[in-house]
């Protein structure tokens, strides 16, 4: 019992691995030593390098994939070719001065070697300073642009090289997308492999857009500064290079301040890069370029448009740059534009005239000035060649010419008195009559009733044929009112039809193109003198010139002033003063003026004898300055026809009386002259002249050529009061409606005289 307290009971030791039952206590196990944490083997910089490399690798793979994908959407590289530059048409005046460029580019291509050295350097300095060192894509430039865009220093930068910009202009659209930028880079690398740096730069300067429809540096120089790129100044080159940032926003003719500021940046960049000296930079900044403001709105564009219309029929399709030499005289063109615009600015609103046109030809039909409207920038419609309007009394010379060719003379006498043609009663503007007058007097004062009588004597169809023979192309209505110019014509064809009076009777075809050649000098077309042949016999030319001289001396155009020149012409005003005309000529130049409104609304009594004559005089005095004075064709014409006016007039008056009910005039005395006689030379236009003499009861004495006295009439009217609207006169203020008849219902009167 005593030893029981020493007994040890057996127990299981948790630490016994073999499961053996032990009776003794095991010593406690030693505590295990804790493992020390490992030290990081990579630094933060190393991690960044690792992940940066990983991302760059995957980015390169992705970029390569995108490049392959978008590159596959381009044409095969071996089939790529620089698109052919659209052809340019350079239009020159008769003296070789550039008038305008036409075509998609607006200017011809120029060689890099022909440009001043600072021109390409200006573009390199501001657009791509590393142009000669990169391979088409400039990673440093892109990086610099990214930094500046992020920091906001230096403005927004694009990072595109000149080669990339050229690739975009040649092959791609202007959209701003990732796909387009990738394709742009691919094409830039291809261009760098295929062409030299200078070739790329030359292509660039001839293809990029400069705003205002100008593609290429030549077109831009002409557009903004009025001269070619070969003579461009340093300050002008800086302006053009600055346009690449925003061609429309920085155009020097619309935003001169913005263009000047950008040009200063270009000059500073050129100096910084060593392309120009500091002295050159200071001089360029001291004399900034000034854009020419009137380019694009001048009237020369009307002439250039007409040249393009004629060119289609002259040389056909155009697939290369060509040079067109025209008949236009730049000095005359400017004079025509100035005369028309000044008159309309000063008096257009007062007279209710909104538009006008002026055409000038030399006696051979060569167009020397052509103004188709008041302002080309507001309206490009060419009224000189396309607007058909009633010529009014400006058509009467063809009526009187037909009369002369049928036996009348300038001294033949006809009655200026009431006339009733089947209910139509033509009247003079004053609604008063002068009684018996010579044809010369009737034409110079634009007496309507006499013109109608002459037209009826020869027949309206004969009048129409005469006008067509002289060059009028438009359809003419062969009825009694044709004598008053009621059929519409264009200013160009009317002026051309007057040319035979100035050149001795030769019909002309108006033309504007003298020569067409390629940029390399190959002749594609050469104008050879072509006429319509003789259309007026010399004696009738002399008669008509004698008659139309009086229009400027004592008639409706007596306000015309052309000192020292022998001139003639005719005024015209259409119904309700809708159209006002004057066509006048010398031995050197034929010019016609039309005024009116595009909507054919009446003017405020603008007639051929006021504003058109004023415009014509102003233009002709400038156009003829310095030219040798030349007289009009004249000569002796036999007056035996004038000696027997009654043999011509009496039967016709009797016949007209049968249908009109007009009293037959009493027989007039015969003149006692049968020998050839010369018309006394006309006074110099602009010299003092007297008003028409008072009317008297006595019949005319034909022993000397003079205007016949008149029977008692109201007091003499001032010449301006006799300026007619040359319309189809009406009774009172109510116009008689015409009754339509079938073709089989023509009267004997119409069958005899060609009315229809």
Spell out the blueprint of helices and strands.
Elements (H helix, E strand, L loop, with lengths): L43 H29 L15 E5 L5 E6 L14 H10 L11 H13 L10 H10 L6 H17 L2 H11 L9 H9 L8 H9 L13 H17 L5 H9 L13 H16 L6 E5 L3 H22 L3 E7 L5 E5 L11 H4 L9 H10 L7 E4 L18 E4 H6 L3 H11 L1 H11 L20 H13 L2 E3 L4 E6 L4 E4 L4 E4 L3 H16 L14 E6 L5 E7 L4 E7 L14 H13 L21 H16 L87 H6 L3
Parallel strand pairs: 1-3
Antiparallel strand pairs: 1-2, 3-9, 4-5, 4-14, 6-7, 8-11, 9-10, 12-13, 13-14
Description:
It is a single chain. The protein has 756 residues and is of the alpha+beta class. Helices cover 37% and strands 10% of the residues. The protein is built from 22 helices and 14 strands. A hairpin with a 5-residue loop joins strand 12 and strand 13 (579-585). The longest helix is centred in the first third of the chain and has 29 residues, at 44-72.
**Estimated helix fraction:** 25-40%
Please count the helical segments: 22
- The averaged pLDDT comes out at 79
Low-confidence stretches: 1-5, 15-21, 640-756
Task: Indicate the radius of gyration in whole angstroms.
Answer: 44 Å
Main sheet overview: 5 strands, mixed
Number of strands: 14
Give the class from helix and strand content and strand pairing: alpha+beta
């Amino acid at each position: 019992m005593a030893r029981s307290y020493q007994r040890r009971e057996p127990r299981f030791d948790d630490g016994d691995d073999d499961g053996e039952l032990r009776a003794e206590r095991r010593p406690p196990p030693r505590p295990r030593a804790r493992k020390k944490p490992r030290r990081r083997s990579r630094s933060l910089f190393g991690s960044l390098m690792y992940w940066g490399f990983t991302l760059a690798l995957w980015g390169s793979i992705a970029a390569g994939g995108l490049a392959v994908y978008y590159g596959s959407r381009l044409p095969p590289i071996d089939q790529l070719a620089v698109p052919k530059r659209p052809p340019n048409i350079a239009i020159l005046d008769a003296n070789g001065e550039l008038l305008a460029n036409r075509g998609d580019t607006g200017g011809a291509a120029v060689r890099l070697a022909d440009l001043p050295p600072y021109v390409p350097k200006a573009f390199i300095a501001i657009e791509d300073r590393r142009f000669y060192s990169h391979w088409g894509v400039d990673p440093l430039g892109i990086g610099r642009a990214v930094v500046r865009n992020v920091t906001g220093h230096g403005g927004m930068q694009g990072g595109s090289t000149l080669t990339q910009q050229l690739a975009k202009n040649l092959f791609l659209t202007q959209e701003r997308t990732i796909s387009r930028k990738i394709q742009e880079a691919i094409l830039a690398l291809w261009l760098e492999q295929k062409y030299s740096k200078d070739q790329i730069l030359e292509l660039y300067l001839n293809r990029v857009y400069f705003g205002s429809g100008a593609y290429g540096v030549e077109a831009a120089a002409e557009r903004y500064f009025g001269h070619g790129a070969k003579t461009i100044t340093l300050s002008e080159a800086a302006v053009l290079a600055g346009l690449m940032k925003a061609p429309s926003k920085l155009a020097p003719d619309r935003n001169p301040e913005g263009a000047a500021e950008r040009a200063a940046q270009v000059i500073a960049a050129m100096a910084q890069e060593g392309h120009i000296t500091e002295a050159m930079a200071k001089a360029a900044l001291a004399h900034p370029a000034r854009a020419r403001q009137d380019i694009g709105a001048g009237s020369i564009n009307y002439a250039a448009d007409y040249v393009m219309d004629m060119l289609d029929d002259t040389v056909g399709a155009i697939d290369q740059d060509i040079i067109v030499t025209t008949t236009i005289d730049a000095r005359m063109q400017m004079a025509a534009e100035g005369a028309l615009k000044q008159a309309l600015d000063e008096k257009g609103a007062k007279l209710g005239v909104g538009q006008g046109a002026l055409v000038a030809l030399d006696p051979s039909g060569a167009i020397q000035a052509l103004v188709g409207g008041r302002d080309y920038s507001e309206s490009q419609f060419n009224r000189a060649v396309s607007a058909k309007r009633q010529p009014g009394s400006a058509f009467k010379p063809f009526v009187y010419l037909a009369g002369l060719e049928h036996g009348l003379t300038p001294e033949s006498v006809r009655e200026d008195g009431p006339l009733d043609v089947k209910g139509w009663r033509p009247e003079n503007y004053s609604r008063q009559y002068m009684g018996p007058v010579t044809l010369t007097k009737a034409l110079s004062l634009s007496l309507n009733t006499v013109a109608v009588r002459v037209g009826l004597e020869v027949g309206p169809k004969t009048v129409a044929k005469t006008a067509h023979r002289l060059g009028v192309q438009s359809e003419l209505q062969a009825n009694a009112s044709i004598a008053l110019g009621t059929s519409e014509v264009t200013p160009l064809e009317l002026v051309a039809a007057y040319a035979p009076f100035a050149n001795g009777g030769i019909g002309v075809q108006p033309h504007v193109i003298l020569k067409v050649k390629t940029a390399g000098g190959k002749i594609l077309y050469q104008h050879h003198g072509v006429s319509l042949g003789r259309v007026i016999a010399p004696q009738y030319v002399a008669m008509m010139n004698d008659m139309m001289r009086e229009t400027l001396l004592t008639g409706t155009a007596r306000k015309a002033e052309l000192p020292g020149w022998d001139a003639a012409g005719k005024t015209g005003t259409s119904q309700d003063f809708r159209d006002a005309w004057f066509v006048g000529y010398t031995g050197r130049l034929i010019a016609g003026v039309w005024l009116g409104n595009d909507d054919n609304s009446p003017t405020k009594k603008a007639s051929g004898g006021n504003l058109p004559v004023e415009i014509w005089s102003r233009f002709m005095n400038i156009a003829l300055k310095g030219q040798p004075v030349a007289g009009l064709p004249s000569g002796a014409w036999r007056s035996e026809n004038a000696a027997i006016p009654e043999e011509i007039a009496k039967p016709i008056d009797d016949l007209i009386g049968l249908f009109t009910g007009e009293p037959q005039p009493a027989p007039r005395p015969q003149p006692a002259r049968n020998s050839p006689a010369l018309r006394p030379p006309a006074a110099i236009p602009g010299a003092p002249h007297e008003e028409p003499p008072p009317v008297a009861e006595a019949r005319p004495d034909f022993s000397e050529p003079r205007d016949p006295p008149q029977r008692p009439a109201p007091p003499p009217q001032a010449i301006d009061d006799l300026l007619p609207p040359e319309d189809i006169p009406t009774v009172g203020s109510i116009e008689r409606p015409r009754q339509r008849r079938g073709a089989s219902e023509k009267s004997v009167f119409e069958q005899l005289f060609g009315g229809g």
